[in-house]
Input
Amino acid sequence: MPNDETTDAMLSGYRVLDLGQYLAGAGVTRMLAELGPEIIKVELKPIGDPARLLPWVEDDRSTFFVENNRGKQSLCLDWDKPEALDILTELVEWCDIVVENFGDGVLEKRGLDYDSLRRINPSVVMVSVSGFGRNSPYADRPAYDGIIQAYSGLMHMTGDPELPPSIVAFALADTTAAVHAFAGLGYALLYRERTGKGQHVDIAMVDSMFHLNGTLSVYHKSGGEFVPKRRGRYHPLYCPIGLFDLPEGWGVLMCLDRQWPYLTEAMERPDLLTDPRFKTGSSRAEHQAELIPQIQEWLLSFPDNESLLETCLSHRIPIGPVLAPVEAIGHPHFEARDMVRLIDDPVLGEVMIPGYPFKFSAQPDLPDLVAPLLGEHNTTVLRDVLGYDDARISKLRDDGVLHEAQT
Output
């Protein structure tokens, strides 16, 4: 249970042991950190979290690491030494939550798997994020974001049907799994508040991505007539849904049956509304070779995107331009939602990162957080959390159990 400290932060008083690396694990505690728990990030000698090496690196400081590890304390250990495992065991007694994304069997070899941890602390909630989950014939397979995009079917569905599949350029699988883990953790904590019992939350990256799939029911109920595949620019079953040329760049137009009359009105084409070929979304899809060029011509009749979007929105027609990520900078929506943030880092100075997607009325203001240097909090954690004296900490450092960045 959380300790007695209370502040305005929603998770103040909760204690988290973060064994996460890269993004799928560290991304869970990245989201937790904004809500105020005490997070001890365990890093392994000699380099710590390998994310410290990922670009952009400047002055030996990674913007990727900074973005995903703000608000955490760094404890760097050589866990091949038994004293390091003793420290971790003591921290398990102290914490409410453990988050990890190690490969299959790694924690079991060191007695840090869930069955071992719950014997130490029965109320602990452990969150594991892995490529294929802990209970899978593929559990021991190495998996990174692109591998999971491939296995989940996402890659098969992305791109032009006449070309090879395309990889999504965001770390979509890592981040989606982290968000699923963050959500699962919240319900595990609610269960613990009601029962006093901890549990293991097992999140597979491939499950999180496959869960986005909305085509299985269509394949099943069509008796296999509809086979999910890359659709390219236009939806094969419903029209008009797809990617169109706009006066400036590209945009997505999505009109279901409710919006179809609005589009014909905006186009000043009542004949389209009464044409039997275009009566339903499905029939429009069957005849989209005749319909799409007419819509496309109308879209390009506007002098610029602003006038087009104003017309469409005044008729309640769903449309949006394709934006590059950097176009979020200064954009009215992203500015209003604080989704482009400038944070201060003691090494890098100002760093621009994506904002926090969860907006809680109970905690409208977010804290100022800083990412740690490697092993920066070794002494603080051992002294203030575990009660070690200076002599014991010095010996652990001399024996190579502790490791710190050379500054």
